[in-house]
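Regression report. Comparing outputs from two consecutive submissions.

Submission 1:
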Amino acid sequence: MAFKALSHFSLLTSSFQFSYPPTGPKIRLKSPFHVSELLFKVSLSMDLLSTSSPFYQSGETDYSRRFSTVPHASSAVDSSQRHVVITGGNAGIGKATAMELARQGMAVTIACRNKEKGDEAAAEIVRNTNNPSIRVMICDLASLTSVRQFAKEYLDQGLPLNSLVNNAGVMACPQQYTEDGFEYQLGVNHLGHFLLTALLLDRLKTSATPGLKSRVVVLSSAAECIGNLDFNDLNFKGPRAYERWLAYGQSKLANCLFSHELSRRCVSFGIPVTSNCMHPGVVDTQLIRYVFPQGISSNKPALFPGIRSTIIKLLGLKTPEEGASTAVFLASAPEMEGVTGGYYEDSRRKSPSARAVDSRLAYELWRVSEELTGATEALEPLQLSVLASNVLS
């Protein structure tokens, strides 16, 4: 089946052509790919090569041991050191981001589901950067209880927070729901991060200094352009039929709108926190690997030698370090000081879809997200809850 599938792809000098079904018309895609073309090819590869694939490894759900520092890491708070929290900082883009920010001297807190994997990543970062200020704390974005517990324990540590990188996510998974009943991609990619940001916003505010604002970086995707928000059926429990890529697009559109609205509200109320979102490109990480069958994952023996490398070349995937470069830029670059409300790709400001910057849509998503996550108590003291809507409308 794999060889038959690959025979439908023909690598050309400046474009790709394939037919689906095999007897159908040739489709020619020019490089660079538009997101819809890319998603079609990824989905096609999966459908042709396998009938099922893993998509999100289960993490530790025992919240009794949530905070750790790797061996030789300092647990003392250095008031002169800038601090960053990175969700999903144990793998892929998140780990590459953590590695580079640690190399720059920042104190890094890796927020992830699996403590063992987090500790392994932290130890690697310490070895490679000689920066001992790497912490691991458990945060399962599919559980609002876990998000609240993480935020409480972080705040109780007395740590400052200068940058928050909302990196973790899932992509194109089968239909399922979070612990709180949310469609999984919307729950993990958007709602979990919405609550996390709300709970940490006051610390971000108080950690800012004159001439040095705190920063929120939201990883979105060019897939936001295929997203659509149906506020009557956000969780695909009503009339909308679940389609994994459209659900992913919805969550990525929500990321853009959240970043846009957070920026707008912080500017309106003089809160020294910037917010920017980004498209990292299509990156060779666990996120994309879980769309492929197990046999062509990089961490498993290939069932058919050469298949994975062929598909990687076909899709033009970036390395995690390349994908992380924009996140690092937004979280730490001096030239981004005070810059807010943008959408970035390859460390350059770009224009997302019109829906991604629709202020009315962004406001409505904020209102619904605040209600669904119960974030009002954290937002109200900062005048950022929907209770301040009359000022912003």
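Submission 2:
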Amino acid sequence: MVGAGAGVGGPTVGLGFGALAAAEGKGKERQGPSPGASAGAADRVGARASPAEREPPRRQTVRPAEFRRRGEELGLSLGDFDMLDTLGTGTFGRVLLARLRTSPNRPNQTQPHYFAMKVLEKNTVVRLRQVEHVNSERSTLAHVRHPFVVNLFCTFQDEANLYMLLEYVQGGELFSHLRRAQRFSADVARFYTANIILVLENLHAQDIIYRDLKPENLLIDSTGHIKVTDFGFAKYVPERTWTLCGTPEYLAPEIITATGHGAAADWWALGVLLFELLAGYPPFFADNPLEIYEKILAGRYGVPRHIDPLAKDLIGRLLTDDLTKRLGNLKGGAQDVKNHPWFEGVDWESLARKEIRAPIIPMTINPGDVSNYERYPATAIETLPGVLRAISQRKYGFSPEKGPDPYGYLFPLF
């Protein structure tokens, strides 16, 4: 979810559920092709169009309404949860497996329920100037409802942390499955890419751009379908924006050159993702971000010969720097991508209903199974003061005094 280099403009805000970037500028290493996959074993392809001078006209939309999803308004508190395994750690905090205990106050709940509790340290968020991104992630997840997007149930906060209660997606990251397989077949890549197209189509119809597409931010649910997570860089953009953010290997040229970007940047990222799923490595890679940016702006990359011509054509139509020619950014929008011959035979309506069997069905034993995630050291309960007070009250009949909360006013909807 977070990895593959530092998120530009600050580390990636969304922690996600899996193995997350442990420090700013650190992440999962992306590897280039093996030594045997030399330039002689690949066709050279470049973005053939000139820089764009205009974008297609956009419809008028309305900024998504702000929805509050505070836990206390739903009759929940941090004390209702048992914090179990640490699913991931990152620059801003961690993600925990949380078990909602049964209670006489919830007579319809007959057994424990499992969630992913995303914990963000307020002082770190403020120090790294990520307040806007964190609030944006909460707002976007509270607004968006899609079968392939992770669900936000509610939020909490105490004097030290922000908490987002998210659905627990048991299958782990697509990144992990890709690394084990080294690369996916065309049919497997087509299935996951089609999942993501439906998500982008839904977001863009609301003028929300995602801006952090990569395998680490794609989870696999119990049925094998995609769940997109990490919405820290998502933003309502009816026209264009100029913020430099994202993961270096996936940045569109217009983001790097700061000429303004919109939904078209997500379609570029889809081209990068499709390439990585089929090749096992991204089309633009280097040891440092500046070299990656140079390769992206040069627009040249090698396509391994095992990638079929139709997939190669689709990648090329997505990885063009001319916004007036980039597939997905034309008059037909997402439908143009869905109509590409590489997707011939895909039943998009059945896919949206999850009626198409997924190529990878994760192995799980019970609803709280964490075997598809990496193991992390346990989280010290002292770092979760709201949880500590609830445990103390439940076990001993008293709770420690609440400490000062100098940053709570910055997060009014949590």
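Expected: both submissions complete independently.
Actual: both completed, but the second showed a warning that disappeared on reload.
Relevant detail on submission 2: The two ends are 23 Å apart (CA to CA).
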